[in-house]
């Protein structure tokens, strides 16, 4: 690859190896490439803060679920668990995936349109003040 990092690691290619050797994850050189979305990183950080000894093993189980089942489904399950402040672990994620529960979409943000005539008024007053 070109550029600064010159690498792109696909977690699906190495997840089976990492699951067998979970201790290697903590010091893996390209560990940051093993977080497909920011929610995966948030889940790992939460696991690390709650139970540092088991965080790597639990996160790799979640990542293994994403590789086997659905990355989008696991990401949605993590979003649901993080928003509901429930326990984040592989068992909870797998339970949500298996239940086929409809997880609400992310919050929609509505941005009101801007009335540009206000700016025209400001500009006209500014030009009159210069005269």
Notes on the structure:
- With 131 residues, the protein is mostly helical.
- The protein has one domain (11-130).
- Helices cover 56% and strands 0% of the residues.
- It is built from six helices and no strands.
H-E order: HHHHHH
Number of helices: 6
| Amino- and carboxy-terminal Cα gap | 59 Å
Mean pLDDT: 86
Q: What percent of the residues sit in helical stretches (DSSP H or I)?
A: 55-70%
Largest sheet: none
Overall geometric form: elongated
Q: Oligomeric state of the chains?
A: single chain
How many separate domains?
1
**Rg result:** 23 Å
Uncertain segments are: none
Find the count of extended strands (DSSP E, 2+ residues): 0
Strand residues, percent: under 5%
Structural class: mainly alpha
Strands, helices and their partners?
Layout: H1 11-20, H2 38-50, H3 55-68, H4 71-83, H5 90-99, H6 117-130
Helix pairs in contact: 1-3, 2-3, 2-4, 3-4, 3-5, 4-5
The gist of it:
This protein has 131 residues and is mainly α.
Task: Name the descriptors.
6 helices; 131 residues; mainly alpha; 0% strand
